[in-house]
Amino acid sequence: MITIAGMTYAWTDPVVLGAVAGLVLLLLLALILRVVMRSARMAEPVLREVTWLADRVQSLSDGQERLAGGLHHVSEAQAVSQSAMLKLMEQRLAEVQRNMIENLQGTSTRTARSLGELQQRLETIDKAQANIEKLSGNVLSLQDILSNKQTRGAFGEIQLHDIVLKALPSDSFTMQATLSNGRRADCLVHLPKPPGPIAIDAKFPLEAYEMLRRAETPQAKAEAERAFRGAVRVHIRAIAERYIIEGETADGALMFLPSEAVYAELHANFPDVVREGFAVKVWIVSPTTCMATLNTMRAVLKDARMREQAGAIRKELALLYGDVERLGTRVENLDRHFGQAAKDIEEIKISTEKATKRARRLDNFDFEELGAQAGAPLIGPSVAE
After folding, report:
1. Deepest of 165, 266, 327, 374, by most Cβ within 10 A of its Cβ?
2. Could you tell me if 242 and 272 are in contact, meaning their C-beta atoms sit under 8 angstroms apart?
3. Rg for the chain (alpha carbons), in Å?
């Protein structure tokens, strides 16, 4: 590399090669001049050649200067172009950077929103999972309750109590009522005679029912049906013997099954057992049918209480009739007073109209002229209207 007039050029550049050629020619010229000075007598033709060579060298030097100037102009134009190019690239780069920042900010906002929504959904899932775990625990607890006969009986009694409490007044039934034979019924509804108090006892043959549902072979199903039929019959006989007492209770009782599935299975596939219950006047009810039966009992209780209060109702009706008669008399008196007042008001209106007419006539005439024409005092006694 070589620097000429503040510009850097390569050794293979034409300008450098031209400059080197010029220097070589100058050296040759100097050498020739020395030869000429030593032998001045020699060669005027050589002198002419040297002069011609000097002119060519001068021309070449001038061309070299013009070439250097052109190269300098080109370099300046290139520098300006490079500056403009750099400025444009900086602007484009700034614009691209701004767009990238905006896109990144938008992406960040959307990502944050999506993460927030995802967090909410995860919280919802966590709550649902907690509810599922809680429900699973409750199901396990219910299975534990139903697996034990005593707790299963308490479960049926609680369900029966809730249904009775919703259907009947609180003074129309007794839970865990003890009868004269020492037996304790889960619920005793105090119906009037007839039919008399009716007992309701909760029974839950769950084990036999589960055996029936799990049966897969015909033999296992037949055995499960015998077990289920036997369990229900035992409950029916126990209720008939314990909670139907002549002269104390109604001639029938209710067996409450706290499961709609067991009730449906019994009525669908064991009608003979249901008929046996009818024969000994033990009626089997489920939560739904028990509610309907208790509503019917509620109507019976209401009718009985209405009959008990019939005397008081008749007395109250007689008093109400007297009050109505007095009210009618007083209304007649008030109407008569209103009629007299209306008549008085009408007479007052007539007198007011007559007085108004006389005042209007007096206002239209001269008093002296009126008196002279009439031959009477201006003011005299008035005629009562």
Report:
1. 266
2. no
3. 65
CA distances from 114 to 17, 100, 103, 109, 132 (A): 70, 20, 16, 8, 26
**Distance, first Cα to last Cα, the chain:** 149
| Token pair for 74 | 């080109």
Q: How many helices (H) and strands (E) does the chain have?
A: 10, 7
Confidence of residue 139 (pLDDT cuts 50, 70, 90): very low
Per-residue DSSP letter, 177: E
Which residues sit opposite 177 in a β-bridge? 185
* Residue appearing with tokens 């007992």: 199
Average pLDDT over every residue of 242-251 = 87
> Could you tell me the sign of the dihedral formed by the alpha carbons of 169, 175, 178, 181, in that order?
positive
Peptide bond into 14 cis (omega under 30): no
Mean pLDDT of the chain, nearest integer: 76
Q: Which two tokens stand for residue 9?
A: 């050029």
Give CA angle at 276 (271, 279), nearest 5°.
Answer: 130
Per the model's pLDDT, the better-predicted residue between 376 and 167 turns out to be: 167
**pLDDT given at position 60:** 74
6: left (phi over 0), alpha (psi -120 to 50) or beta: left
Rounded to 5°, the CA angle 68-70-73 comes to 110
Q: How far is CA 224 from CA 206, 207, 208, 212, 266, in A?
A: 12, 10, 7, 5, 13
Distances (CA, A) of 151 to 145, 211, 242: 5, 19, 22
Type of residue at 172: S
Give the DSSP per-residue string, 254-279. Answer: EEE-S-HHHHHHHHHH-HHHHHHHHH
- Strands, DSSP E only, in the chain? 2-4, 7-9, 173-178, 184-189, 198-202, 253-256, 282-285
pTM of the model: 0.43
pLDDT tens-digit readout, 144-188: 444 555 555 566 788 888 888 888 888 888 888 888 888 888 889
* pLDDT the model gives residue 39: 61
Cα distance between residue 300 and residue 304, in whole Å: 6
Question: Residue 42 belongs to what H/E stretch?
Answer: none
